[in-house]
């Protein structure tokens, strides 16, 4: 049976323990920082869109009635939808320059 002194005298064990500690510290720091940011609630996933495809417009209208702004998750990204007039004004009038435009969208 190994004792704690045997493990601490093994360079490979020290490397493994250190690596695991660093990964856990990075994971904690990343999650802690993510929780500080304010995110809109998750209202649906792409699976919900597929299941409600036959009535997608009505489904999205129901979500917009329930949440003024919300996220829809998909495997590699998420989309933010809003029906809040203050958010729409912010994006289209107040801070229009903050929202990037694709060259093909602006006709360049």
From TrEMBL:
Q: Which UniProt keywords apply?
A: Iron, Membrane, Metal-binding, Oxidoreductase, Transmembrane, Transmembrane helix
Where are its TM segments located?
Answer: 12-30
Q: Which family does it belong to?
A: Belongs to the cytochrome P450 family.
Q: What is this protein called?
A: Cytochrome P450
Task: Tell whether Membrane is among the UniProt keywords.
Answer: yes
Q: Which GO terms describe its molecular function?
A: metal ion binding; oxidoreductase activity
**Cofactor needs:** heme
Domain of life the protein comes from = Eukaryota
């Amino acid at each position: 049976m190994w004792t704690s002194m045997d493990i601490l005298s093994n360079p490979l064990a020290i490397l493994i323990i250190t690596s695991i500690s660093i990964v856990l510290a990075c994971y904690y720091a990343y999650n802690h920082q993510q929780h500080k940011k304010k995110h809109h609630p998750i209202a649906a996933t792409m699976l919900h869109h597929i299941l409600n495809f036959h009535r997608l417009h009505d489904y999205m209208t129901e979500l917009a009635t329930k949440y003024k702004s919300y996220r829809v998750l998909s495997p590699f990204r998420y989309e933010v939808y809003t029906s809040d007039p203050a958010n729409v004004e912010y994006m289209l009038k107040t801070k229009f320059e903050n929202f990037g435009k694709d060259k093909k969208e602006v006709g360049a």
